[in-house]
Structures are given as C-alpha cells and as structure tokens.
Amino acid sequence: MSAARPLTTLRTLAVVATLPLLLTACGYGSEAKSDDTAKVAAGAKKIDGLDSVRIGYFGNLTHATALVGREQGLFQKELGATKAEYATFNAGPSEIEALNSGSIDIGWIGPSPAINGYTKSDGKSLRIIGGSASGGVKLVVNPKKIKSLKDVKGKKIATPQLGNTQDVAFLNWAAEQGYKIDPQSGKGDVTVVRTDNKITPDAYKSGSIDGAWVPEPTASKLVAEGGKVLLDESTLWPDKKFVITNIIVSQKFLDAHPKAVEAVLKASVESNKWINANPDAAKTAANKQLAADSGKALPANVLDPAWSSISFTDDPLASTLNTEAAHAVKAGLLTKPDLKGIYDLTLLNKVLKAEGESTVDDAGLGVG
C-alpha cells in the first residue's frame, strides 16, 4: 500500500491474507467432533444443560495445553456428561471467524488474532480468559546465505501469515534494525514471504526462502533440514517471557455458560500442571494428539528441541499482549487499539485459588 493510502486495521489485512486458507479448508477449520475414546464418568451430569462444548486449537506445539488436555481426557473429565468437541485450525483469523459464527465456543489462539478479533468487534466478540504458553518462536536461516543478523538484509524471510503474531514480531524486529519494509506487500530491505507453516519447510528446501520467523515445531523442522537458529524471540523480551498462546471465549458463551467455561479452565490448569510435572510424558501425549489430528507424528529430532523452547503457564502475560499490540501499530498493521476489557480472568483466578496457586494479573486490561 502506498504512503498516500494509510493502512487501517490488522483485521483487514488478516482477512485478505486468510482467504486462500478459507477457500481451501473445509469451513472454518476441521469439523467439530467429539472424542469417542473420552470416558464420561458414571452418573456424570451435563454442565449448564449443554450437550457439548466446542473447543478450537492449532496443530502446533505452542498449543500443547489443548493437545495434552484432549489426549489425556481432562476436558471431558471436567465437563461431565457434556461432550467435549474439537476443531483444529491453521490460522488465527479462521478461528476468530468460527468463534464469531458460533462454530466453536472456546479456543486456544495467538495474541495478534485475539487483539484483531476484539478490536474488529469493538470489544464485543471475545474475552481472553487465560494463558497457555510462552516462547517457542525462532528466526531460522540458511547458514550458507545468512551468517549474522546483519545478513538478513536483502534476503527472503517467511512468516506464517500477513498480520499474524510472528509476522508482527518480525516486522517490528526488522524496523528496529533500521530496515524499511512495506507491511502489506512485504517488499523492502527484506522481502517478507507469507507462507503457511505446513509449506515453509519445503519452501526452505527449494531455496525460495532464505529463512523464517516461525513457531514450533516449524522452527525445528527447518533446523532438521539444515537451518540454523539465528535468533530466539524470547531473548527480546524481559525475563524471556512473552505470550504466544492465550485462551479465548465468546462473550455470549461466557455470559450464558460460566460453569462450562470454568470447567474448561480447570482442565487447562490441570493440563499445564501435568505438563510441567511430567515433561517427557506430556511431550509424548502432545505428539500422539498431533499424530491423531494430522496423521503424522513428529520425529524426535524435531519434537525434542521444539518442546524444550516452550514454557507452559496459566498466566496470560497480559503486559506483553499490550506490547505486541504496540508492535503492530508501529509496523503499520493496526491503528492504536483500546484493549480495556479484553481480559476477564475472574474464573481463572477462582480455579487457581481453589488449586492453591497464585492468581494472575490483567495488566489493567480487564473488564469492569
């Protein structure tokens, strides 16, 4: 877009970028389905009279809280006789559309789509109700073409999608290096190539990209193909912590069915507790669910380094969400948003207190 036509909001860019995904996908994502193997306890009752709760997530290790919670049957356990149904997604905007349409009720998602969905609806569509993961994002490059950070100039770097969380992070980092890039076209001192994570390893092997700023396990897949980690995004953040995955819910569903939302949050907290206490078993469980969803498990040389770079936390790291929004504004992908009210951590903190855990903060961006 030319300088004479200022960029408006991230939502416009993200929706345009997502059209090919929507056209080639079945609906908004995979069809919501329940787990036939999940056991419903004898005598269990439906929560809020609901037949089902529909949960969305991505096939990424950064969504391992959902992967493990599903594979271990924790969501079904907490929902009683209300069936846990699941849908998987490739991109944040498509999950936001599914949430807005009522195709799912609750979802695991990155910060940029959550910000976009909230601002697009003037603060009426969703709430962030919990955290899930931090870290797990890297700049991986072809070491024959890029030997240092300064060598990124003039190269072709992939990000998953126009306006997605990693795209915003890379554009912000590039601007801090003094590089000028048109955020919409991706052209400039560095060429940004928006590429689906599933395709990125093949694009790297073919030489059509020189590197990628991507989440796990894509980053480790590139390393397995001979790539080198040039930068771990966590090193750019205070205490090396930044939100990569949040839990969101439809405001309509939250208002109508708080007990069901609380049950899902309890399962999420239990999942993270189990993951952190049993990292090897949790890694295996997450990989098993990935294989069930995609038909292919991750090999150890991808799974192990990917898993070790992600931390799992119930804290949504709200202050970093505000910073990520500021990065999107700085990059020209978003007009300055009013995020007041994007968080409602009431039910999460209720669950954490009951578990004897410390409560978490919304950085002044909570409701009320």
The helix tally amounts to 14
CATH architecture of the largest domain: 3-Layer(aba) Sandwich
**Helicity, in percent?**
40-55%
Unreliably modeled segments: 1-28
- Assign an overall shape: globular
Strand portion: 15-25%
Structural class: alpha/beta
Distance between the termini: 38 Å
Give the radius of gyration: 20 Å
Strand runs, count: 12
Summarize the structure in short.
InterPro entries: ABC_SsuA_sub-bd (IPR010067), NrtA/CpmA_ABC-bd_dom (IPR044527). The chain has 368 residues and is of the alpha/beta class. It has 2 domains: 10-136 and 241-354, D-Maltodextrin-Binding Protein, domain 2 (3-Layer(aba) Sandwich), CATH 3.40.190; 137-239, Periplasmic binding protein-like II (D-Maltodextrin-Binding Protein, domain 2, 3-Layer(aba) Sandwich), CATH 3.40.190.10.
Explain this structure to me?
Helices cover 40% and strands 17% of the residues. It is α/β, with parallel strands linked by helices and 368 residues long. The protein has 2 domains: 10-136 and 241-354, Periplasmic binding protein-like II (D-Maltodextrin-Binding Protein, domain 2, 3-Layer(aba) Sandwich); 137-239, D-Maltodextrin-Binding Protein, domain 2 (3-Layer(aba) Sandwich). Strands 1-3-2-4-11-5-12 form a 7-stranded mixed beta sheet, sandwiched between helices. A 5-stranded mixed beta sheet has the order 8-7-9-6-10. Helix 2 crosses helix 10 (258-277), helix 2 packs across helix 11 (279-294) and helix 4 crosses helix 5 (111-120). The relative contact order is 0.18. Residues 1-28 have low confidence and may be disordered.
